[in-house]
Amino acid sequence: MVQQLEDTQKEQLKSQFIERLNNQGYNVEQEANLKGKSGAEHYFEILAHSNNGFISHTVAIDITQEEDNRDVGLSKVFAFDDKSYDCGIRYKILLALPRLDSIAFRFAAGQKIRVFDIERLREFLDSPLASFPKVEKTPAWESKDQLLQSLTDLGYMVEEKGKAAGNSGVEYTFDILATFDGQP
């Protein structure tokens, strides 16, 4: 059985996670407030920003847990997804301590929220760092081959005439489909 985390343990895991993000090249902002499209102000435990010279993106990260060692329920996952959507943030990570219940887990998967329960978080923190090439400026491409090589050099898996399914389940074909960590 997973033990209830003490505040000091939770803060230690949060610090290690932030350090990991920094080592992966993210600029990390803690306790961030963003104004959403609705006009509402939303609080995020962590916002991580990345710009590899080709793509820049923001990841919203929250840490959630229930009292008495209960699994985290749907309402907390829904609220996190809702505020991320309102702020236009597509990439979402939820540190669910100790874990999500089965309904919340299915919802998170459907909303493409990457979830770390306590065990997966510790495994992630103990895993070796991936290395990514540093890009000083956005390359200028004069040919399709140069574009493909730049994407490959940045660590993307590149597929010409690649296929990907949309949220509706319809499959689309792209001239070039570049994926990173399995995500287009």
Q: Sum up the overall morphology in one term.
A: globular
Beta-strand percent range: 25-35%
The largest beta-sheet arranges its strands as 1-2-3-4-5
Please identify the top-level CATH class of the largest domain: Alpha Beta
Which fold does the CATH topology of the largest domain refer to?
Trna Endonuclease, Chain: A, domain 1
Q: Helical amount among residues, as a percent range?
A: 25-40%
Instruction: Report the radius of gyration as a whole number of Å.
Output: 18 Å
In whole angstroms, the N-to-C terminal distance is 36 Å
Give the number of domains.
Answer: 2
Number of distinct beta strands:
7
Low-pLDDT stretches: none
Secondary-structure content class:
alpha/beta
SSE sequence, one letter per element? HEEEHEHEHHEE
Architecture per CATH nomenclature, i.e. the level-2 architecture of the largest domain: 3-Layer(aba) Sandwich
- Helix count equals 5
Largest sheet: 5 strands, mixed
What's the pLDDT, averaged over the residues?
87
Any overview of this molecule?
The chain is an alpha/beta fold. The chain has two domains: 120 residues, Trna Endonuclease, Chain: A, domain 1; 36 residues, no CATH class. It is 32% helix and 32% strand. It has five helices and seven strands; from the N terminus they run H-E-E-E-H-E-H-E-H-H-E-E. It has a five-stranded mixed sheet with strand order 1-2-3-4-5, sandwiched between helices. Strand 6 and strand 7 form a beta hairpin. It is globular.
